[in-house]
Amino acid sequence: MVLTAPVRIIDGIDLPAAGRFEIDAGHSTVGFEVRHLMLTKTRGTFHRFSGTIDIGESLAESSVSVSIEAASIDTANPERDGHLRSNDFLGAPTYPYLTFKSHTIRMNGKQLLVDGELTIRGISRSATLTSEFEGGIVDPWGNDRIAFQARTQVNREDYGMTWNIPMDGSKLVVGKDVQIILEVEAIRTN
User: Fold this and answer.
1) Which run of H or of E encompasses 83?
2) Contact (Cβ atoms closer than 8 angstroms) between residue 16 and residue 148
3) For the purposes of burial, counting CB atoms within 10 Å of the CB of 81, is it exposed (0-12), middle (13-18) or buried (19 or more)?
4) Nearest 5°: phi and psi at 111?
5) Do the beta carbons of residue 151 and residue 31 sit within 8 Å?
6) Phi-psi region of 158 (alpha: psi -120 to 50; beta: other; left: phi over 0)
7) Is the dihedral of CA 85, 88, 91, 94 positive or negative?
8) Separation of alpha carbons 170 and 168, rounded Å
C-alpha cells in the first residue's frame, strides 16, 4: 500500500502541507543544456548541491533556497569540464557556488512561478523558475517526500561568461542561452 504525503489545495493547486523540506541530492538532478555549434545541445549536471523548500500556509509564506557547487559540473567530457570550471566560464576557484534564493512564489495556471535571485560568478540577476508540483508520498521509512520540476533560461553573458569562438555568419561555438533544469525530490524535516 502506497501512502501519499499530506497535500492541500492552495489557489487551485495541490501543494504539500506546510513545513520545511530538504532537497535529497541523491534523488534529484540539477542540469543544464546549451547549444553547441548552434546545431545540437550539450547537456550537463552538477553532482553536489543542497537546498530547502519552505512551504508556508500560503504561497506568500513559502520560499526556496538552493546552493550548487560549481566544481561539481559534469558534461561527461573531462577536458570540457575543466574549461567550464575555469575563469572563462564558472570561475569555480574564485566563485565556488551558484545560488538561487526566492523572494516571491506565484501562480500561473497550474504552474508555480518562483521569482528570485540567481547568483553565478558573484553576479546576481533576477530569474524565474517555472515549476510544477509532482506530488508527495510517504516513503517506506515513514518520511514525507515531495517532488518538483522546474526550469528557467538565462543568458550566460549576463553572468560574465562571455568566452566564445565566432564562426561564419553570426554563429558561435557556444550558445548564449542556457536552459537550467531541476528535478527535485525533498524530505520533510519538520
Assistant:
1) helix 78-85
2) no
3) middle
4) -100, 150
5) no
6) alpha
7) positive
8) 6
Paired strand residues for 166? 172
Which position has the grid cell 558561435? 172
> Which residue, chain included where needed, has cell 545541445?
41
pLDDT in tens, 19-68: 999 999 999 999 999 877 667 798 999 999 999 999 998 888 999 999 99
Cα distances (angstroms) measured from residue 166 to each of 81, 95, 156, 172: 21, 27, 16, 5
Instruction: Give the closest residue to 105 by CA, choosing from 188, 177, 10, 178.
Output: 10
Reported as a single tens digit per residue, the pLDDT across 95-122 is 999 999 999 999 888 899 999 999 999 9
Cα angle 26, 132, 143; round to 5: 45
